[in-house]
TrEMBL record:
InterPro entries: Ion_tolerance_CutA, N-reg_PII-like_a/b, N-reg_PII/ATP_PRibTrfase_C. GO terms for biological process: response to metal ion. This is CutA divalent ion tolerance protein. Belongs to the CutA family. Gene3D superfamilies: 3.30.70.120. It holds the Pfam family CutA1. GO terms for molecular function: copper ion binding.
């Protein structure tokens, strides 16, 4: 089983909670953590600084495409961040938790 971390950001906590809830209820993710962050970036050739909510989504590599589709369906951004990071090392117990709680 290939366990991954998927990250996305939302403009507000309500949207982040809606996405997190959908992913866990549909068993696409075992766990989603929300963190308040400040993002600095360039958009349309302008400097931007915004408060956002970061979602850290624990899941299997096999669920990436379904999660990407769900995020795009529920997200308000024109171009949401959707990145996958491979988890190369974790406790067997935590890996089992993720496997047991995802489809």
């Amino acid at each position: 089983m290939n366990i991954v971390l998927i990250q996305t950001t939302c403009s507000n906590k309500d949207e982040a909670k809606k996405i997190a809830k959908a992913l866990v209820e549909e068993k696409l993710a075992a766990c989603v953590q929300l963190s308040e962050i400040e993002s600095f970036y360039s958009w349309n050739n302008e400097f931007c600084c915004d408060n956002e909510t970061l979602l850290s989504i624990k899941t299997t590599k096999e669920n990436f495409e379904k999660i990407k589709s769900k995020i795009k369906e529920l997200h308000s951004y024109d171009l949401p961040e959707i990145i996958q990071l491979d988890i190369t090392n974790a406790s067997k117990e935590y890996l089992k938790f993720i496997g047991d709680n995802t489809i």
